[in-house]
Every structure is written in C-alpha cells, then in structure tokens.
Amino acid sequence: MQKNSLQDLYIDELRDLYNAETQLVRALPKMAKAASDGQLREAFQEHLRQTSEHVSRLEQIFEQVGEKASGKRCLGMEGLVKEGSETMKEDYTEGVKDAAIIGAAQRVEHYEMAAYGTARAFAELLGENGHVSLLEQTLEEEKQADKKLTQLAEEINPKAAQVQGHASVGFAEGRSSSKSRKAA
User: Fold this and answer.
1) In this predicted model, which residue has the larger pLDDT, 164 or 15?
2) Where exactly are the structural domains of the chain?
3) Within a 10 A sphere around the Cβ of 114, how many other Cβ atoms?
4) Euclidean distance between CA atoms 70 and 111, whole angstroms
5) pLDDT tens figures, 15-46
6) Is 70 helix (H, G, I), strand (E, B) or coil?
7) What architecture does CATH give domain 6-183?
8) Which has the higher per-residue pLDDT, 178 or 37?
9) To the nearest 10°, the Cα dihedral for 153, 155, 158, 160?
10) What sign does the CA torsion over 142, 147, 150, 155 have?
11) Residue of 80, 82, 83, 163 lying closest to 115 (CA atoms)
12) In this predicted structure, what is the pLDDT of residue 124?
C-alpha cells in the first residue's frame, strides 16, 4: 500500500527512532564498559538511563496515535553502532580509545538530534502538540549528551595526544606552522 501522507511519514520516522533507541539500549552498556575514564563511563551510564526514557516517550506517542510500538530497522543507527563497536575492538591505548569512543558517540548523538528534529517538525505540522513536547524534551536531552561528550573530549583528547608525546597543538596551528617552515 502506497504511503502518501505526512502522517504516514511521521509514523515511519517514529518507528525508525524507536529502533534506533532500542539499538542504543543494547550498545551503551558496551560503550560504558570499554571506557577507561570514569567520567566517560558515568556519562554513558546516565545516557543509558535517558535512552530508556526516550523509548518510553516514543511508546507513549505510539499509544496516542493508536499504533503498535515497533521499530522499522534503522540502518543509519545500525551502521553507527557497528562502527562504534569496531572502534572499541581496536588496540588503542586507554586514553586514545576513550577519544575514539567519544567520536563515535558524538556521531550517534548528531544522528539522533537530526532525527528528533525531523520528527518534531512533522508533529508540529500535524498539530500533535503533546508529541511536540515529548520529542522536544528528548531532543534537548540529546543536545545535552552531545555537550557533555564535547566537555569530556576537551579533557580526554589532549591527554591522549600527550601520551604519544605530541604537543597539544590545534590542527590548524600545526598546518600553518608547517607552511611557515616550508616558506623559510
């Protein structure tokens, strides 16, 4: 049956998000276990708690629209989770692995922010104000998780760079100084 309404697309988006979140419920404990930094581990544990709430909010929306809470296989999240899993298997030193895990986690957060923003916009257009509020709440939590990961990266990444004896110089600075050396 052809789907030809924004309502159909909205339900598809919700199903995609539902599957994405359930994939994360399984992935976040593995990320927490792989993290060597205590604050990073705690951040993943906290986000797991929030992710369970995200699933519950989506189930609430499904109930309100009279649809079964089920997921449509989210290939995007599947790829991001697989990529993160491969990162955790790499033979990096602890600090470098933490930096890699943060990068993988931020890619997940950005994907979720885009998806929740889209679903919220559809809910607004469909006049589903209660859904807008639930989706906005989750979107804000995803933004906060990303912000927390950025703060952790600002602490962890320079330490990872120093482990191998590299100076904590920004990429742009390093490039400009190498250009200066070439010119000299």
Assistant:
1) 15
2) 6-183
3) 13
4) 20
5) 999 999 999 999 999 999 999 999 999 999 99
6) coil
7) Up-down Bundle (1.20)
8) 37
9) -80
10) negative
11) 80
12) 98
User: Within 10 Å of residue 64's Cβ, how many Cβ atoms?
Assistant: 12
What is the value of pTM for the model shown?
0.84
The structure tokens listed for 85 are: 């899993």
CA nearest to 107, candidates 168, 20, 169 = 20
- Going by the DSSP 8-state scheme, the letter that residue 37 receives in this structure is S
CA 148 to chain centre: 11
CA distances from 168 to 19, 38, 115, 158 (A): 39, 22, 34, 6
CA dist 67 and 69 (Å) reads 6
Residue for token digits 């889209």? Answer: 118
Block residue for tokens 């943060």: 102
| Torsion angles phi and psi, residue 35, rounded to 5 | -75, 135
**Could you tell me the sign of the dihedral formed by the alpha carbons of 114, 119, 121, 122, in that order?**
positive
CA distances from 38 to 49, 68, 95, 144, 145 (A): 17, 38, 12, 19, 16
Secondary structure percentages of the chain, helix, strand, coil, to 5: 85, 0, 15
CB 89 within 8 A of CB 34: no
